[in-house]
Design goal:
By secondary structure, the protein is an all-alpha fold. 44% of the residues lie in helices and 0% in strands. The protein binds heme C (HEC) (4 copies).
């Protein structure tokens, strides 16, 4: 445990590595480089048929419920069994995969940001404070320089949370990326 801590301290002490690292679980425990604006802001543009209705698709997904799940009796029971004396929604070891922005300075959270939105746009795409404007968004390279994260290696990305560290993971669990992506797929229509 202590060894792991030292290793992670060494790792996060290099800003370049921070930027290169898209592992959300780890990003969340570090100071983010960019502010979070919240799904309502991303959804202002990403809700039309032409864009691909990302907001609606996300709202229908379980990711949108991930924080609320922590407020259930079932979650509190799991947290207790794991030896935590705080409710699940106040336990960092649960929040790290079920929420975003719970551990950052208030000044980094925009007025529309809600921790209750659970696993939200910016959990996966990075804090949008600096890339959310139309002119930046239209320029993929610039957007990425300003914090937009895209995940060409989806296999590697999803399992940063979907893994055996999750208390509800069983020995029979496995993550089928293709099947799971088909449940949350939100691509921009090609013929827009
Ligand atoms: C002002 C409107 C606007 C807002 C707000 C906005 N976007 Fe975008 N976004 C766009 C447009 C336009 C594109 C480019 C679409 C295209 O290339 O056809 C885009 C592209 C993207 C892409 C695809 C990048 C690529 O080329 O692969 C992602 C991912 C994305 N946005 C995520 C977000 C997230 C997350 C937020 C909130 C933090 C957000 N956007 C806020 C308008 C917006
Ligand atoms: C930040 C952590 C995190 C990341 C990254 C993440 N997920 Fe999830 N995912 C969760 C949590 C937490 C739940 C459970 C939410 C609930 O039920 O409260 C979940 C649930 C789901 C579900 C619903 C469960 C089911 O069996 O239908 C799907 C589908 C899913 N995730 C797909 C994906 C895919 C695909 C990726 C990668 C593109 C991904 N997730 C990345 C945390 C994450
Ligand atoms: C490593 C990431 C991770 C951590 C840490 C984590 N979870 Fe989860 N949790 C998930 C994922 C992913 C799922 C979705 C499982 C699935 O695919 O159905 C999930 C699902 C759940 C569910 C079931 C939701 C349902 O659909 O019934 C509960 C309850 C839950 N988690 C509680 C907790 C509690 C309490 C903690 C802290 C003690 C915790 N989790 C920590 C990733 C995590
Ligand atoms: C669980 C993680 C996850 C969440 C939550 C999530 N996305 Fe994505 N998103 C991805 C992945 C993975 C891709 C495919 C690879 C890529 O282009 O980033 C993607 C792709 C996109 C694209 C580009 C589609 C294309 O055709 O190029 C846009 C736009 C986008 N997401 C916007 C959003 C918005 C807006 C939200 C919130 C309403 C959101 N995403 C929530 C993981 C996520």
């Amino acid at each position: 445990m202590f060894k792991k801590l030292i290793l992670s301290v060494l790792f996060i002490s290099t800003p370049l590595l921070w930027a290169a690292n898209s592992d959300t679980t780890k990003t969340d425990t570090k100071a983010p480089l960019h502010g979070f604006v919240g799904t309502a802001v991303c959804g202002m543009c990403h809700h039309t048929d032409k864009q691909g209705k990302q907001l609606d698709i996300w709202k229908e997904s379980k990711h949108a419920q991930a924080y609320k799940t922590l407020e259930t009796d079932e979650a509190n029971k799991i947290a207790k069994e794991k030896g935590f004396d705080t409710p699940a929604a106040k336990t960092e070891a649960c929040l790290k995969c079920h929420a975003t922005g719970y551990n950052v300075e208030a000044s980094l959270l925009g007025p529309k940001f809600k921790v209750e939105d659970g696993v939200q746009c910016e959990t996966c795409h990075g804090g949008g404070g600096d890339y959310k404007t139309l002119s930046v968004m239209k320029n993929k390279k610039e957007a990425m320089e300003k914090g937009l994260q895209i995940h060409e290696d989806m296999n590697a990305f999803c399992v940063t949370c979907h893994n055996s560290e999750s208390p509800t993971w069983t020995k029979d669990s496995k993550f089928d990326t293709e099947a799971m992506w088909s449940k949350i797929k939100h691509t921009i229509p090609a013929d827009k």
